[in-house]
Amino acid sequence: MPGQGNLLWCCSDWMSLGKFVFWNLRRANKTGFNFLPSGGNAVPRITVLLTASAVLISGWAAAAEYGALLAQATPGTEAANRPSAQPLGPPVFLPQKPAEVFTLPPLRLESPETDVVAGPRLEIKSYLFEGNKVVPSEELQRIAAPYAGRIVSASELEELRHGLTRLYIGRGYINSGAVIPEGALTNGVLRILIVEGRLQEIRLKGMERLREEYVRERLARGGAPLNVNVLQENFQLLLADPLFSKMDARLLPGSEPGSAILDVNVIRARPYQFTVFANNYRPPSIGAQALGASGWVHNLTGLGDVLDANFQDSAQAKGGARYGLGWSLPVTSRGTQLQLRLDHGRSAVVEEPLKAADIKSTLDSREIGISHPVVEDLRRKLSLGLTYARRENRTTLLGEPFSFIPGEPSGYTRLNVWRFWQDYVQRLEQQVLALRSTFSFGRNNIEQSSAAPSAQPAPDFFVWLGQAQYARRVLDSGAQFLLRADVQWAHDRLLPLERMAVGGVNTVRGYRENYMVRDSGYRASIEYQHPLLGTADERHALTLAPFIDYGSARNIGEARDRIYSAGVGLLWRWQRVAANLYAAKRFVTPPTPTQTTLQDRGIHLEIRYDVF
């Protein structure tokens, strides 16, 4: 192999330069060279070699630009399925007027004045209540107290019976009430039987392939006795299920006293959707422009499951495809869910001057998890979940396995991680608050080296991620403020796959996607969405969205970097077509003068079309 100085001068193109770099790095690995951190990415040797050559070929300006581009192109930083990249869902406000889901039979309670029961006057010392479970006897005795210890007429007994029945009905137990059986008076003690109503049967129509137990079990939550308030809330929760488009119900008298029949007519929602899209939401180093498709299918098994899939590929180069497949299955009527997910992604650096180095990365991720709502009603939901993930990343340079991670010489990194997460959502008519906390405990295959231990990711790591979103309606037109904030704290130095990304359309707009990928950081955004045409619920809408974004991140043992921006967005939808356009002004100038992509000009654009 010729000497280094001769090669640097004789390199006539980037490919020969790349081969030279590869030879030098292989030699460095064989001689025990340990990479040291440089700008948050542990690749100084390749930085030195390529930067020196860039100076000879393109002048000193190219050198500064190259160093920053390499930092963004390091394999692992382009990962799109890192935990911090999963945003909270869009806010869903509580309906201001809940839908009328029940048609109730008229309640026939005749007043005592028109329903006088002829009969003797009775001397009653006290009352004994039987059959009551949801209302304590002490409360019933307080209602009966004015009728105890004296002579009571039959009309007064009927008045007492109606009073007890109204107590139950007022609390939602619409088919519960009091009955005075014959021969109920013994030694001055009158026995009153409380009949607490029940739901005898649920009749369902329009279920198609969905198992009837899926609806019956969810409507019957709360058990006996039947409470119309609980039943209506169960109905509202079921209406929010994407399996259904509309539900109507009638509550009818049953075949026995105190029983009721719920007659339900179900209109199923479309069980599938397929969308195609184009955007510039990828890191420019691997090709910012993307074409893709996503879709889902509901109820493949008849158990209410959801299968979702997504695909996207670079519009600029081959070898940049990503695939994702997920499946969630309800395992109990109380909302317990089993989740499975597979992701596969390939990327190749396509940006000059790194393109000739042929840097490629392959990422595989497999996850299994379970979640359960601890609290769930129309206004609040608190869920807990546990997920296990196994993630693998393979990297190559010039077609040969090559590591960009200190402490891992083969170009193959692997991590196993457990994530315990807590999700809380509170919905009101004018505001929505969503909070999520995720604790991750993991282990990777990095071997600690004595040469530069501070530069290497820790083999065992712990990281906490907190996310918050608050939406507030401010005008009747549907205008709203949207505040978002994320924070990640890492106890240990992390692999790029687990780091927080700052910069891009979902974090700090106006900067490149994944502009900073660091161990710890935080980001915040405030956005005002003002409808110019239509509202969010209409098929044709145009919304103006001015915003301010801020982000900060750092690696352990390094200085913190900050970026922030302000701009405006246009959100447009017409029937099946939707487009989002954001334009932002950066207030911290990137170290690279590159203006080769729309992202470098502060523009983020996506167009979507719902095929069906």
Structure description:
There is one protein chain. The protein has 612 residues and is an alpha+beta fold. It has two domains: 68 residues, no CATH class; 364 residues, Porin (Beta Barrel). Helix 3 packs antiparallel against helix 4. The N terminus is likely disordered.
For this entry, give a set of tags.
single chain, 612 residues, alpha+beta, Porin, 16-stranded antiparallel β-barrel, four-stranded mixed beta sheet, 8 helices, 29 strands, 16% helix, 42% strand
List the helices and strands and how they pair.
Elements: H1 4-10, H2 14-30, H3 44-58, H4 60-73, E1 102-103, E2 122-124, E3 126-130, H5 137-144, E4 150-152, H6 154-170, E5 177-179, E6 185-186, E7 189-195, E8 198-205, H7 212-219, H8 228-239, E9 244-253, E10 259-268, E11 272-279, E12 290-298, E13 306-314, E14 322-330, E15 337-348, E16 359-376, E17 380-397, E18 400-401, E19 412-427, E20 431-444, E21 460-473, E22 480-490, E23 500-502, E24 516-518, E25 520-533, E26 540-554, E27 561-574, E28 577-586, E29 603-610
Parallel strand pairs: 1-9, 3-7, 8-10
Antiparallel strand pairs: 2-4, 5-7, 6-7, 9-10, 11-12, 11-29, 12-13, 13-14, 14-15, 15-16, 16-17, 17-18, 17-19, 19-20, 20-21, 21-22, 22-25, 23-24, 25-26, 26-27, 27-28, 28-29
Helix pairs in contact: 2-3, 3-4
